[in-house]
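User: Structure with calcium ion, tokens only please.
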Amino acid sequence: MKKLSVCLVLSLFVSGLLASERSFNSPDGSLTVTVTDNGGQLAYSVTKQGTLFIESSPLGLVADLDDLSKGVTLTSADEKRITDSYQLKTIKQSQVNYEATEAVCQVEKDGRHAMDVIFRISNRDVAFRYRVYPKKDTRVCVVKEEKSGFSLPEGTTTFLCPQSKPMGGFARTSPSYETSYTLDEPVGKNGWGEGYTFPCLFKTADKGWVLISETGTDGGYVGCRLLNQQGGSYRIGFPQPGEMNGIGSVTPALSLPAATPWRTITIGTTLQDIVETTVPWDVVEPKYAASKEYTYGKGTWSWIIKMDSSCNFNEQKNYIDFAAAMGYRSVLIDALWDVQIGYPKMEELARYGKSKGVGIFLWYNSNGSWNDAPQSPIGKMDRSAARRKEMAWMQKTGILGIKVDFFGGDKQPMMQLYEDILTDANDFGLQVIFHGCTLPRGWERMYPNYVASEAVLASENLHFGQGACDNEAKCGCIHPFIRNTVGSMDFGGSTLNKYYSADNKRGTVRRTSDVYALATAVLFQSSVQHFAMAPNNLEDAPEWAISFMKDVPTTWDEVRFVDGYPGKYVIFARRSGGKWYVAGINADEKPLKTRISLPMFEPKSALTVYSDDASLNGSVSTLKQNKKQQVAIEIPQNGGVVIMQ
Ligand code: CA
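Assistant:
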């Protein structure tokens, strides 16, 4: 025995380090993170109820001031309970009570306290980040590589959105984070060679689900992606060199001391924890106060059905009238309005809108020099002087907000541009929607005037190609579980036209039902929704559909996962005030026949049900819940259901 321990001490001495290992539990004890510095290299693993969900995976940074990925020791760890309570109207849940264990792990290199690894462990999420300290007089550093890895157990399958290569696609605007997901594929691929866009969903055989993403990213770092190493091992990747027209570095620079963005891992034995997580907002703080009380709601948008030529004075007046008829608060006027309407006539439109109780969102090109997107207004958002002058005009004119398009990737200067647009817009009381853009990373809480981002294969593709229409329901059954669960999604959906064209007689054909349109108004979360409806829908759409679309909320107090599987079908319940909306859609060829439990409704209560027959003809009926608070539902392929009390 003595001999053995001498050998052990000797071998540890030879390796130069005494391994230190610490474990931390979530408040309810279900999630456990174990951190070790074995061999001078930091690693962590995560279990849920004793089952390993993240196998031993690397931690650490390689910075120019120090290589903090090896030769490091974990010297101590301070552990404490964090509680926070916050209100946010712009996310899936208006009131969040956050409770987590915070563990600050001190890391030494060559006897110097060089870095902390900070963990936040709630009952369903693990978040971690690094705090890097100055080294003598060296107070800035470049992070050359982030080692943070995620090693998934054998048998894991993937639900991922491949990152596109830079400077491709329309007017060299990629990556725009809107490629098609692959579903239930084995691990081991690296997308199209460039990894994957966050968030990334994994199914760990029969154990449960893991959603990996990041949050808290601002102009102090780069936006990251997930790269496959081999097998089930993934790691954080920095932007691609070609992004932003090749301008700027792929590596972030820090002014020390500084903390990196959070890496987040949400773990659920079912999809419930994935759907209901609030981790993107739990671990970030507001960066400034709202300059006014921002309001939210529905709007109309001509471009999606009638394209560029519709951005003229008369058509926009029609869409203001349409918004007023629907009781909506805004109209979104898309590209080329500066040429096709002009500034003086826009002021006239704004006055007309005001007389009807309808505000205006205006489209802008983000460029700049990062791609060839030609649409104007251009050169108004990329630099502060022109931007603030434009925003002062908007404020004077009574414009509600902006939709800024065609961003150039995830390098640090581009992340700074997002932040600068938001910060300036708040000074002028403007809400901000981003398009052709990256995933928002906690931005609803960080920037109070931020509304939503595209960062998804959105409704424009339904206009552009029949293939997207044929696949609409399949994509619709993916986004609520992945893209939309970590950030507000500006999809621009709920089309009630049969065809994507001004005369509703030609163009791409919508395959989904009217009830599907209603259900996605509930399933797709954004506090400001510019729906793809057209004025003709007041005459040609069913009265019950119009009436529903007039009333449906865009802000929610609560979400509950009811049932579903990514790419096949999805049923959620969302609550607004005292009213629950249960919404489902089905992409599977087979009609979905199931019995769902709806404990949010009183037993035996009479429910209003919007549903489709086998030919996708929708109707409204009433249904009585049984004593067990269950109802039987049937949703045909491309159809939907909405249940309300
Ligand atoms: Ca787009």
